[in-house]
Design brief:
With about 55 residues, the chain is mainly beta. It is built from no helices and 4 strands. Helix content is about 0%, strand content about 45%. It has a 4-stranded antiparallel beta sheet with strand order 2-1-4-3, with no helix packed on it.
C-alpha cells in the first residue's frame, strides 16, 4: 500500500483533556474524501472512545 494515503490522526482527549495528543495512523482514499477526516476511536491513554482529527 502506498505511503501517500497514510494520514496522522491526533486525539482531542476526553472532557477533562486526558489522552489529548495520542497519535494513530490510518489510510485514507484521497480521491473520494477531500475534507479532513475525523473519527471516534478508542484511546488507550484515556481508556475510552475519543475524537481523532486528521492533522497535516
Amino acid at each position: 500500500m502506498s505511503q501517500d494515503n497514510l494520514i496522522k490522526l491526533v486525539s482531542q482527549g476526553d472532557e477533562n483533556g486526558v489522552g489529548a495528543g495520542h497519535i494513530i495512523w490510518a489510510y485514507k482514499n484521497k480521491k473520494k474524501l477531500k475534507e479532513r477526516l475525523s473519527l471516534k476511536k478508542f484511546n488507550p491513554v484515556a481508556r475510552k472512545h475519543t475524537l481523532y482529527v486528521e492533522k497535516k
